[in-house]
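Project standup — Tuesday

K.O.: blocked on the structure for the chain from last sprint. Re-posting the sequence here as requested.
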Amino acid sequence: CNYINTLDGITLGYGQSSIVGGRFNSIITGNTSFIGGGSANCIVGNSFSGGVTNSLIVGGTNNIISGDTENSSIVGGRLNILSSGINSFIAGGISNSITGNTSTFIIGSNITADRNCATFVNNLSIKNLPSSSTGLPSGSLYYCTLSGNTVFFVP
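H.V.: unblocked you, prediction finished:
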């Protein structure tokens, strides 16, 4: 059974949330939030300061969005926690955590985010890097065959 917190059939000030499919999913103090499928996923906000807003969990199992999280998502995976994050995202994996970070993204497993505006991965594989910096904007990567295929950063 899925559960959206209500008192005598009246949602406790946190309306317009939905659970579609899955089992044992729950939304408690989540405003305009969504759980789609999966099992034992939970959205539970801080009822004293606004709760979870405009956030979602799609699939996976035992994932939690909590605190004062806004505009954030967990898609798939299991045992992932997104707490008081804003505009953040966990893409699958196992045992990932974002707490209090803004615009933070995790792709992988067993990762704890420790800064804002960053993407965290276990291993990064970049395919088809350009072999010259010609025409690349600042911040781009390229490799140089004259330097033993060393990767460089465009300042």
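K.O.: great, moving the ticket to review. Residues 6-13 have pLDDT under 50 and may be disordered. The radius of gyration is 20 Å.
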